[in-house]
Each structure stands twice: as C-alpha cells, then as structure tokens.
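Technical note accompanying the year-one report. For the benefit of new consortium partners, we illustrate the data format agreed upon in the data management plan: each record pairs a sequence with a structure-token string. No post-processing was applied to the example shown here.
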Amino acid sequence: RNARVLTMDDRRPQAHSVAVRGGRIVALDDVSGWTGDRTRVIDLAGRFVMPGFHDSHNHMLMTGLALTRPDLSAARRLADVLDVVRTEAERLPAGTWIETSAAWHESQLAERRFPTRHELDRAAPGHPVFLRRGAHNVVLNSLALDLAGIGPDTPEPSGTTYVKDPATGDLTGHVVGTTTVAALAVRLLPRPSPDELRDVLRGIMDTYARAGITSVVEPGLMPEEMAAYRRLADAGELTVRVGLMWRLLGRGEPAATAVAQIDGGEVEPDRSGEWLRTLAIKLSVDGGVETGFY
C-alpha cells in the first residue's frame, strides 16, 4: 500500500496498491477484499514499485563464478593486473591454477594491452595462470601453455589465434577463440563441484534480486551446469526465473555431429515450469564477438 506502482499497462499505467496471492498479482488499488488476518501488509511510504527486469542474454552462473575469482575490474595499469596475480600466487600453494574473473577489458588499462606470458611468469613463477577477459580471450603464462600443449609450432584450431609477437614470432600467451578458450578451460581447470555450483547460484540470485533482475535467459550451459539449475528448481530454491540454452561445443565438426549429439540423447529436454524452462540449443558456427568471420 501507499506506493507509486508502474504497471506497464497503457490502460492503467499507475496504481497505489497491489495485492499478491500465490505468487501472482490479483488486484490493483482496490485490494480490501484480499486482506485478511494472515495477510502481510507493507506500507511503502510512497516508494516506487515496478516489474522486475528480464535479461534476454545473461550468463548468470558465469557471473556468479566470476565473483569467486580474483577481480581485475578496478585495474587501471598492467601493474595492477600483475599485482592481483602476484597476490594470488603468494596465497595459493605452488602449482595451483590461478584463474581470474573475466569482467574487465584491456581498454581500461593505461597501456591498453593484455599482459604477456613473460610478465605473468614473473608475477606467478610457480603457478599456471589462466587470465580471462570475457568469453573469447585468455592469456596463459608459460607453465599454462606447456600444460595445454601449445608451443610456437602448434597448429591453430579453426577459428583460433595463438597471438605472436610480430617482432620475434614468440608466443605472447594470448589465445583468441571462443571454442578453444572454452575447451582449454574444461580440459585444464578444476571444475566446480555440484555443491559449489549450487552455492554460487544462490549467491548470484541474491545479487540479481538487489538489482531488480527477476528473469534471465542463460545463453549456453554444459550438462553439469544445467544440472545445478535443475537441483535448485527441484528444491524450490530458484528466485530468478531462468530460460536455459544447451551448449554444444563446436570443435570444427560438421553440423551432422551436432545432430547426432541431439539424436543420441546428449541433449535432454527439461520439463517446463514457472521457474525453469529449456528454450533452445546453442551452436557456435564461426565464433563470437571478436572471433567470428565478417
């Protein structure tokens, strides 16, 4: 009650009271018939109410995982990036992978470039480093390159670039290519446990609620990630409505391979519900931002 409600209905754009029962809006303004002894009544003292935001392309699980990793969003110089990596190296046992959050961009740095593998080597000499930037770029240090089997003469997979120093031909450690970056992560990095994925989703849903995001489309998930959403839905713990897209990792195979994956049962249809639906299958044809043909 006592609110300023934006209804998004041209016939009745504003209201002052809203009645909700069973998770659905049942009345506007005249809500007296919906109030009883067990009704929770909230006086908003004139505050604003609007429908939640729907994001049609939102990697919610990836965002949640990023919040558990070293943050580079405040870096303004290469030295800041390297300091974050160095701090992680001092904190973690030797040989442990260092994986950063992808939520940053080299344009925010004074030098406007990625660090090189040699700079990462000096910051973390005893650790393999997987320095993410978005979903399409990663910088590996020398130890990580060795573990990935990438050398100066390693053939580049289709749609992938192993960036080299134009002056020396030396690998910089920068790898560009959606499919290859994802494949390297799956093959090399420790995978979160089911319990970790569940806890990450719980935390990020709380963060989204504070930002007013109530519904998302998750554009591309692997089977274990889909399962994490299913477990929360089965337990009645989803607080953000989610439309799921299966991801079939492209590895340069023909389209018939993807069809075989579908026909062979690798993609399982979800039962539809109010909180969780499977909407589509995602295929990478020629890359993505920065990595597709044009």
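Partners are asked to follow this layout when depositing records. The chain is about 30% helix and 20% strand.
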